[in-house]
Structures are given as C-alpha cells and as structure tokens.
Amino acid sequence: MPQPHAQRRTELAGYLRSRRARISPEDVGMPPGFRRRTPGLRREEVAQLAGVGVTWYTWLEQGRPINASVQVLDAVARVLQLDTTEREHLYRLAGIPFVREPGSDEEVVGKEVLGILHSLDPLPAVVFNSRYDVQASNETYRALWPLTTLVERPERNVLYRLFTTPECCSTFVNGDEEMPWMVAQLRRAYGRHVGEHAWESFIELMIKKSPLFAQLWASGDVAPAGRRVKIIRHASVGIIHLTSMSLSIDGMAEHRIVVYTPVADEDRLQIERLLGMDDPIVGCEVHGRRVSEILADRAAAKTVRLTPDSDQPATA
Asked: Which residue(s) pair with 289 in the sheet?
C-alpha cells in the first residue's frame, strides 16, 4: 500500500495538472499560440509566470519528493487563479499549514466577541493574538491608535508600529518600560511557535527593521502577563494615562481581550475630547497628519496597478 506522503504527492500532482488545464493563455495575458495538444497552460508557462524553475515545477507536477515554500506555492496559486478554498487544498496536499486571510473583524473573533468590544466603548478595547496582531477593536481603540487599524490586516501589528515609528511620533511616553516588557511577552509566546514560518519571518523582519527590537530580543528576557499602566501621548489631546487588563477568550487559544481604563477623571475627559473630534492628528506636532490625509493616501495607493507592457507598477 502506498505511503501517505506518496499518496499526497500523487494527489498534488494531479490537482496541479487539472488546475493548469483550465487556465488559457488569454486568461494570463499571453498570446494563444499554436499546436497546443492539450487545453490550458504549459508547465513552462506556469513556471515562468510564477518565477520558479521549469525543472522544479515539472518535478512538483510529477509528484517527486521536493520541498515547496509558502512563497512559491503562493506564486503558483496566483498563476493558476485559485480561490481561497482551492489554495487551502493546495497547501494541505503540499504539507504546509494554510493561514486563511480573514475579510472582517467578525470573521476573526466572532459576532459575540465583537459585540463585547463594542459594548465596552468608550473604554478602549482590542483583541490581540500572542504576536500582538490586532484581530479586532472598538471605536475608542481605533481613535487612540488609528495606524493599527487604517492599514491592511497583515500590517496590523502593534509591535511593528511601535518599533518602526520615529521616536518623536511614538504614542508611548513610558516606552522605555513598556517596550522591553512587550518584547519579553513576545518571546514567552514564541516558545510555543519555534520553527513556524509566520513567527520566524516576523521575528526576522522586526530584527531587520529595528535595532532596538534586535537588542531586546537578543537579551532573551521573558515576562508574565499582568496589569500595566500605559502613558499615551496623542497629538490632538495630549497625555492620557491608561491601565491595561488582559482577559482570556474561551475557544480562542493565545488570544486575549485587552481593556484600557482611564487612571483618573482627567484621562477619561481626554478620551471624550478625542472621540468628539472629526479629524484628529496622528503622529507628533512636527510630523503629524490628519486621519483624512492618511486615508486619502491609502486610497490613492490602491490605484496602483500593473501596466499591460510591464511587470512594474504604475499609478493609474
């Protein structure tokens, strides 16, 4: 009886051939050509469009025991125009964990958890995973930290924002205390994910982008979760003192709701002032920009497309 790995490779080979057969050259912007014995793209055409070697792709379609990375499978899936379900099937056959890209906060955390976040307004509240990715948030949290929510979902990471923002524009007044603690929290969680692509690539990116993160990560420190006091500087209203508390979520391992409570009445009033503003400033007094400007820039960036004659992006 064939071994499971061999069976999976055979299934992967057949699946790739069937997906290739349904894509015509015209579907990917290529001339139809002549003398095509079978429908669909040729192997060398898929390899060329995906940016992989012809021999490697041929071996993949032949079911040979070769390794396929996430990046390569993504490229092949793009050429073969696979939808989310088909892409997930491809990953499973290749023996690589598939991470589905959610489309909304409710899809990530569920209707009930999202309702809890909304009911906590005007207390800022957010759902983090153990890598500090922002999974969902309420209106007050988004007002305080818009750059963790105005960006695309893969970019919604608090650590990335903290460590790549110029010091003058940082929201943390007590960053010297909080940032080492957050990195120590990250390393504590990392112990459960050593060797996982998503975690290793994130750590590598952070080390590359931030010398401070690299220094803190190299220390090897770990820290327990607990109550913290965050001192926030917002360009539109000034200083806000907040006490953070983490709450676990049933059925969502390594996720937590973090609620921020104003330390004093003055801090509560600062939040009320911020929520009453139509177009607050993000950043410092020198480099700060209004939220509307940031949104306009992001909308303009979405008009970037590929020209018909080039694979280089051009603004429409």
From this structure: 282
Query: Residue 299 pLDDT > 90, yes or no?
Result: no
Identity of the residue numbered 202: F
Written as one string, the DSSP assignment of 14-40 is HHHHHHHHT--GGGGT----S--SSSS
* CA–CA gap between residue 163 and residue 207 (Å, rounded): 10
State pTM to two decimals.
0.67
CB half-sphere exposure, 69, CA atoms < 13 A: 9
Percent of the chain at pLDDT > 70 equals: 89
Q: How many CB atoms lie within 10 A of CB 119?
A: 10
Cβ neighbour number for residue 189 with a 10 Å cutoff? 16
Q: How confident is the model at residue 103 (pLDDT cuts 50, 70, 90)?
A: low
Please give the DSSP secondary-structure letter assigned to residue 263.
S
**Separation between Cα atoms, residue 16 and residue 205, nearest integer Å:** 32
Read off the pLDDT band of 315 (50, 70, 90).
very low
Residue 310: predicted pLDDT: 33
Amino acid 201 reads: S
| One-letter identity of residue 308 | P
- Averaged pLDDT for residues 191-206: 84
CA distances from residue 296 to 148, 216, 263 in whole angstroms, order as listed: 16, 35, 35
Torsion, Cα of 258, 147, 164, 316 (10° steps): 150
How far from each other are the two terminal CA atoms of the chain, in whole angstroms?
Answer: 56
CB-side exposure of 314: number of CA atoms within 13 Å? Answer: 8
d(CA 110, CA 64): 41
Return d(Cα 260, Cα 241) in angstroms, integer: 9
Q: What is the DSSP letter of 68?
A: -
* pLDDT classification of 163: cutoffs 50, 70, 90: very high
